[in-house]
Amino acid sequence: MWLAQQGKDPKPTPNESIWWPVYGYDLRAGGVETSFKEAKQGLGIHKRNKKSFEAQEMLMLLNQLAQNLIVWTRHRLVLTLPKLKGFGMLRMVRDVFHISGKLRFNSHGDLVEVILNELNPLAKSFASNLARDGTVVNLRQI
Known about the structure:
Elements: H1 14-17, H2 20-27, H3 31-43, H4 53-78, H5 89-96, E1 101-105, E2 111-117, H6 123-132, E3 137-140
Parallel strand pairs: 2-3
Antiparallel strand pairs: 1-2
Helix pairs in contact: 3-5
């Protein structure tokens, strides 16, 4: 109601107050639709592709989980890599989660070393971020 009244008469008639939701909707910038589109592109959700309702529901729930994990990961990484703050869903998936590398495990299945591709512009930042947690990280050409 406050947004719809911007630039209007401070005491609207009852007939004008009916139109407040319409005025407010018209004043929006469309940011919500843009963020939905970006999230759908980042996760590859373009159309319904399962025939059964249950399978489509499961796919939707998995997509929700993936979206939440990406958002939580971005919030955590921004603490040490502030340049990721402006990254949306698509950019997180395309640029951050596609850093090529290798993992080395010992005979007990414990992670021993993370090797990241030194040619990736984000690899050095990630290496220093992982090293803070005590993980052995090396940068090499892969």
